[in-house]
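User: I'm curious whether this sequence folds into something compact or stays loose and floppy. Could you predict its structure so I can see for myself?
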Amino acid sequence: MLAACACRGNTSQHASKEGVDASFARLPRALRAALLPFQLEGVRYGLERSGRCLIADEMGVGKTLQAIALASCYQVGVTQSHEAGTLQDHSCWLNRMSSS
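Assistant: Here's the prediction. I'll summarize afterward.
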């Protein structure tokens, strides 16, 4: 994974290992299972930088999936019905991705 930090040199934006682990734990199991090892590393990279990163991989290697996974780690304060809808959307999207 090739990623560039938008806040280069500003390490105060970096999350602690415990914070990264806590955020990573919120990643839905189905989504985590769909990610390849380099994509999981990319999600952790984004979490370490508090979501401030640029995913700049080659075409067709799963940038969208990484971005969805990273965003799902930051679901804070959403209502139960919105969260259920979001997870349904992710599941539907993942099913389509795995069948291609």
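Summary: The chain has one domain: 3-99. The helical segments are 17-25, 29-34, 37-48, 63-72, 80-99.
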